[in-house]
Structures are given as structure tokens and as C-alpha cells.
């Protein structure tokens, strides 16, 4: 085992401490590292879905404007290095190893960090030492007590609110909205797309308390779809007509609208970015595993990958299912879901749209057994089979779909990540 693999194994061992919501441990760890986060100009993203897509759009627009840009996201699909992007490129392994060793040197065993606290500290050191002009930070879970919330952002974005991680964030949309609203800062503009009246009230009341200017999708910023898949974005400062994005899905114009709102704030804060950079960025953005059409040889079924790891994401996928099907038949789903998710409702939204389902699982401890998925299959669903080996599940799905069909891998980003590694022939997955 090489030094890099050993370092990652030691880092993953921190997962035994589970999820520890709170900022004190992160603040103490960063203090011992010289508070690298203090000088970063950040955009902080929270929300149930869409954080990564909005972040990737912001990254692409900032790079189009020629700015040195950092992007911190989670989880990774295949390689741990995906979590840290500098100017669109993943961090290199030697730098990962160096950062891991640096953070270990200052850890206090009386206050052991969680995995996410440790990795977030690595991100702050990396982006600060790289001299990033702007850094995009995606929350890991919630917002108020998430390790990323030690930052002092120039803008905050809450994409939407849905029921998720209820064991940590609360049982109602209002509870979850309160946790997400924890990223809002005094006098810092908030861009949001929260639709449910009760959740929106929580978010906007918190913003009002902190005198944070509110930029609401549907009121201050908006989008309008055209029939050809293009769209128009209307902001407070800019209008983009006949825009298009490289990302698939009917939800992406909504994400682009939030990116527009955030970029306008950044422009007001002095960033040399304009609507032409957003237009260019939208055309170049790449965000793997989110309604991604995977390249396949001629004569093979079309393969699509989409994480759809919670109920809102499953619904969003179904709204774009015609883009996946493209009049092809049959549609074979390979479904793997984490055991702690709302399996019955996720399956109730996904599997009725398929012609055949293969229940499988990634090689990850939290993954639900295919037997459990099969037992949760809703009545009246299409025929299915169980194949716990994901590589074999993919092969069975492709054979059943045939050259005229479609294979859709979904249910979890962990499932999609492992499937992507199999499809690319990459045996070096860094999943724990």
C-alpha cells in the first residue's frame, strides 16, 4: 500500500466519529492552522438539491472571466481529489498527501475532528495558499452547524428546501429551512429559490433579522424556457436571451437563474464578471453524475447516470425522463440506494417509469441490500431482478436494453460514482 492510500485510509477512519454538527471543533482546528479561511472571498451554497450544479456554473463563469477559482464540493464520485478543484482541475495526489499530513500535525486528540471537519480544513488551506480570487463552498449537511459555515462569505445561496437528513435537521420543512438559513450572514446578500411558503418565510425572516438583502427567484431573478431547450434569464442587472447550458435536465435553467443572482452580487462586490462570462460558462460547464449521458460505442444502449439520492431529486429526474428515453425502448434502470434514505418513496417515483429494473448496490457500507430494495418495490411496478455486484448489474442491464434501449443508473451518487468507475475502466475508486 502506497503512502497516499495509507493516508486516505487513516482519514476515512475518522468516519467512526460520525457526523458532529457544530463549529467549535472546526474553528479550533483552523486556528491551529493559522485561520486560512479568514482571507478567502467566498460564495457559500446550501440547499437540498442543486448546490453542485449551481456551484459548477459559478465556477465555469468565473473561469471564463479569467479569475483564479476554488470549488469545494462533496461527496466525490470516484476520486477523493474531486472534492477540491482549482481553476477547474482536481487537486494532485502529492498535494493531497501534504495537506493530510499538515492537518494531522495540528489535530488535538482531546478534540478529534470528524472526517468532514478534517477535509474542510484541508480545503481552506489549499485555496488560501493557492491565492484564489474567489472560492465556492458547498455545505456538506444542513448549514447552520456545517463545518463550512466558519467562512465569511460575500454572498450566500440557498437553492431549495426538501425533506432530507431528518435525523439531524428536523422533521419539517420549517426545521430544515432554519438549519439551511444558518448560512445567512449579517448584511450579506442572500440568493434563494425556496418555493414552499412556510420554508420561505423562515429563510426570509432570518435574512431580515440579519439585514441581509434578499434576492428571490421568481421575484428578483427569473427564467423563461423556450421550446428548443434554450432559456432567457432575467436578473436585477443583466438579461441573457437565448441562453443554453451544457447540463441536461429541465431543472437546470432554475439553477442557472440562481447562478445569475449570485454572479450579479459578486459583480457588485467588485468581481470583474459579466453576463458574457455566465453565457460562456453555461455552455462549458461539466458536472459528472448528474443527468449525464455517458459516451457509449455504436451498437450499445445509451447509458445515463443520475444520482437522484433523495425524493426531490427523484422527482426532478422523472420530469426530464423524456430526455433520457429519446423514444428508445426498453428503459432499464440500475438502482442502488443508501439504507438511510426514504427508500419506498424514492422507488415509488423512479421505478414505475422503467421497463425493467435491476436492483444493485455500490461497495459502500451505507448501501441498502438489493433484497431490501426489492421488498420495497411499489405495487404495479415493472419486473425486476437483484444483482448485488454492480459491474454484473450493469452488464445485465446493457444486455437487456440492447442496442435500441437505454440504461439509467440512479438512486445514489455512490452508485453512480462506482458505475462511472466501472464504465471508464478506472479501478482506483477512493470510496471508503
Q: What's the helix and strand layout?
A:
Layout: H1 3-12, H2 24-32, E1 42-46, H3 51-64, E2 69-72, E3 84-86, E4 89-90, H4 93-106, H5 115-130, E5 134-138, E6 155-158, H6 166-169, H7 173-180, E7 190-192, H8 197-209, E8 214-216, E9 222-225, E10 231-234, E11 239-243, H9 252-268, H10 275-284, E12 292-294, E13 302-306, H11 311-319, H12 321-325, E14 331-335, H13 343-350, E15 356-359, H14 370-375, E16 384-386, H15 390-401, E17 406-410, H16 413-424
Parallel strand pairs: 1-5, 1-6, 2-5, 6-7, 7-8, 13-17, 14-15, 14-17, 15-16
Antiparallel strand pairs: 2-3, 3-4, 9-10, 10-11, 12-13
Account of the protein in words:
This protein is of the alpha/beta class. It folds into two domains: 3-284, Mur-like, catalytic domain (UDP-N-acetylmuramoyl-L-alanine:D-glutamate ligase); 292-424, Protein-Tyrosine Phosphatase, Chain A, CATH 3.90.190.20. It has 16 helices and 17 strands. The protein has helices at 3-12, 24-32, 51-64, 93-106, 115-130, 166-169, 173-180, 197-209, 252-268, 275-284, 311-319, 321-325, 343-350, 370-375, 390-401, 413-424; strands spanning 42-46, 69-72, 84-86, 89-90, 134-138, 155-158, 190-192, 214-216, 222-225, 231-234, 239-243, 292-294, 302-306, 331-335, 356-359, 384-386, 406-410. The protein is globular, with a radius of gyration of 21 Å. The two termini are 15 Å apart. The relative contact order is 0.12.
